[in-house]
Amino acid sequence: MELTVNGEKHQIDADENMPLLWALRDLLQLTGTKFGCGAGLCGACTVHADGMAIRACLTPVKAVAGQQITTIEGLSSAGDHPLQEAWIKHNVPQCGYCQAGQIMTAAAFLEKNPSPSEADINQAMSGNLCRCGTYPRIKAAIKDAAASHPGKGDEINGGEVNG
């Protein structure tokens, strides 16, 4: 089976029902995407499929064959995506476990809504859990990323990979 991940085509030898999370982590060695709950409830495993945020723990590889998959490793080749910069500026992570999923959810959200209200951010991020409770910093970072790049949705969603 062929998967296109972070702009590169990969041939994988996997059961078509294998969760995408395990194909990414175990077969492609892309370990930035985390296993959290295994039920799609926490958001730690969030990646993009054709720009849409999906839960990799629930998505079988057959469902994303032919789509462009973007992981946290592919969001920005230099690690300077506006959200990554805002995460650093606002000192968002504590343990850091949920952060890849938080950033990937926020990137897909900002692509669709580059000028969100606080209520929009709360709604969009409600499915991502943070054990450390850094929600105020997460929200501040998302606001900052949106404000620093208004109307540039392609940059917000890692345009150099998906673009």
From TrEMBL:
Highest taxon of the lineage: Bacteria
Entry annotated with the keyword Iron-sulfur: yes
Coiled coil: none
InterPro entries: 2Fe-2S-bd, 2Fe-2S-bd_dom_sf, 2Fe-2S_ferredoxin-like_sf, 2Fe-2S_ferredoxin-type, 2Fe2S_fd_BS, Beta-grasp_dom_sf, Diverse_Oxidoreductases
Record bears the keyword Iron-sulfur: yes
UniProt keyword list: 2Fe-2S, Iron, Iron-sulfur, Metal-binding, Oxidoreductase
Domain 2Fe-2S ferredoxin-type: 1-75
Matching Gene3D superfamilies: 3.10.20.30, [2Fe-2S]-binding domain (1.10.150.120)
UniProt-recorded name of the protein: (2Fe-2S)-binding protein
